[in-house]
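Handoff note, outgoing to incoming analyst
You'll be picking up this chain. Sequence as last confirmed:
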Amino acid sequence: MKDELKIKYLEQQIRAITGAGKAQVRLPFGVAAIDASLPAGGLALGALHEVQGAGAEGEGGAVAAAFLASILARLAPERPVLWCLGEADLYVPGLALLGLAPHRLILASAANDPEILWAMEEGLRCRALAAVVGEVKALPALASRRLQLAAESTGVTGFVLPRRGADTAASTAVTRWRIAALAGSVAAGEPGVGQALWRVDLLRCRGGVPASWIVEEPNATGHVALSAALADRVLPPLQRAVG
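Most recent structure output, in case you need it:
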């Protein structure tokens, strides 16, 4: 009898440490087509995700940050977000227009990737945060696993924003997204009138289905929506992500 109790106790401890048996919390996009491609109908919280920007350095980074802001705006809005970066080029007023209030941002400036990754891991172990964002030039497999484990241990969600040309092929992030602004296109109406459009590619998703959508850039609510003007357009085949 004592041995059985010891075994049950050890099993409980293992489940507590590994998180086994816990239902993972999800953040739905509120768009049926996108949520259907994600396990359990939403973005996994307490996990690591990667968001790439397509286009020139400035444009790609800006649209990736904007897409991420639309997620963070709805993610535990009473808690702050730690944003770790190596270059002081984050446009905070633009993020505010997408619903990410400036008072929620804690900016951490670092000299190089190792410092950024260290700050991210420390932040992910702080339950007071809603999320941690890190802009990096490379994401080694070991570093991504450490970040994933840190996120799982607290339920704080991590996001990696690779700088242009960054090497993230070895990343073990749960999802990998690629976001591109569609130049010169609007959601409806005459040229120059309407909502700006993004192409959103879900390149990789653990337990999900890679897919692509054209969405309208969100407003201050942080919610994206499929473009009504392009809802019936067939998108080009999705390119397979490396790694």
